Amino acid sequence: MITAERKPLEELIEYIKPFKRILLLGCNECVTVCAAGGRKEVGLLASGLQMAMLKTGNNIEIRQHTLERQCDPEYVEELVPMIDSADAVMSMACGCGVQQIAMRFKDKPVFPAVNTTFMGASERQGVWAERCQGCGNCLLGITGGICPIARCAKQLMNGPCGGSTGGRCEISEDVDCAWQLIWDRLKALGLQDRYLDIVPAKDWRTGGGSGPRKIIREDLAE
Amino acid sequence: MSFQKRLAAKEFAVLAEMHTPKGINISRLVNDARRLKGRVDAVVVPDMDNGIMRMSALAGGVLLQQQGVETIMHMYCRDRNRMALQGDALAAHVLGIQNIVVADSTDMNESDHSDATPVNDLDEVQLIEALMGLQTGKDMSGFDLDGAPDYTIGCTLTPFTDDKGRDAALLTAEKRVKAGAGYIIVPPIYDVPGSASLLARVNELGVPVIATVFLLKSLAIAQYITNSDPGAGISSDMIRRIRKSPNRELEGIKIAGETILALKENTQGVLIQTLGWEHKLPEILDVAKI
To answer: B115–A209: do the CB atoms touch at under 8 Å?
Structure first.
């Protein structure tokens, strides 16, 4: 999923200060799962903003709404009846959702309420960790299902650096050395020989090196 | 007179561009430098211009300085992060290169290493700020330097193909000047009267303006530029003039020389680009009466 964290309240207040009527939008997908911008978080933020603004003598009107998917134009259309009654929109979706709203409602200021952080997986309740950087040319098939691009601090592709100690990365004791994990896994699978295969310099064109990426499925595109 | 002093004195500056080799054979670079010594005020050394991997501008600049030719080194953000850029800038100073142009870079996608990952840790405005910061004795993290460098920092006007692009380029150039760029290099000018309004707008930025003069080496090149960028300013008369000439190479040289002469009116210098024909520079300068 795409993970996100809510921005500090002070930053959000700065955004909405000039406006009286705010449409605060949540998204029912990834940001709901990572508890950053779903229906519940929309409610909490609306109260927080209203209280903070009241303290400064400003009474603002906040309308709350959570879309099924903000990155999908079909759901964004739901906002048409309510957009005119808002001076500005604040979105708790990831950056994709925020941009979708900005693109659809060109004359309406749109502000992000969360910082989109990474594509990750849940490790345990309340903990998410980065697992994928969307490099567009997946290496997991040769690295035992553990990604050195997303999980090695140096994105090394041919083994660990000198900073791997006791299976931990030099950047933090809390971070596993991806290459230790890869080695352990290859060994468990009886694929140690694969470790000696030289992975050539990566073609980063698929990973955003050639600019913004797009997928066009001819069989689906209208 | 040094390039810096020439700018300060509002004297017309004549710059030439010389590329480093793709390899280690420096004989051509050194020979061209010897030929040009005393005829131009400084030589601009692009780094990996047009996205072609070649010897770094820092090495090329040092080689030219060793031949007694003042150098202006290109720096840009595609290939190096802030650590490498600052390190190279410090290295340039101690190796005798104090003139820097913060240039736009060709996208990695169009380079001869299109599979490489572009760095772009900083943009050009931020790089200018970083260089300005080094001059105050601080690096980008605020740590003290053991000896502060001193540069003459310039920027480029981003190439554009239409009015929208021109306006955006001028706004960006304004930011670059605000960040500290002390001169600005404008993309190739072919039609000097037709470029008067652009040059006037660039001059409004309040720093010396240096116009690029590109040697049209052949009719095919002139036609290619016209076809790919109709707004470049190569008129049909100019194409006809090259086509009808019994010596098209010489005609291109004459056009470049005449362009330089005409630009003396509304710029503070020219950068002559000959793309491998650096040996023709003396002839161009003869036509330009320089």
So the answer is: yes
pTM: 0.92
pLDDT beyond 90 at B93: yes
Contact criterion met (CB < 8 Å) for B109 and A207: no
pLDDT at A208 > cutoff 90: no
The structure tokens listed for A61 are: 């009107």
Q: Which CATH class is domain B3-217+264-276?
A: alpha beta
Mean pLDDT within B55-70: 97
Domain map of chain B by residue range? 3-217+264-276
Q: A59 and A111 share a domain? A: yes
Residues of B in contact with A133 (CB under 8 A): none
Range of the domain at A61: 2-118
Tens-digit pLDDT profile for residues B223-234: 999 998 888 889
Compute the 3-state secondary structure of chain B and give helix, strand, coil in percent, each to the nearest 5: 45, 15, 40
- Give the DSSP H/E element, type plus range, for residue A131: strand A127-132
Same domain for A152 and A103: no
What's the rounded Cα separation, in Å, for the pair B101 and B205?
A: 17
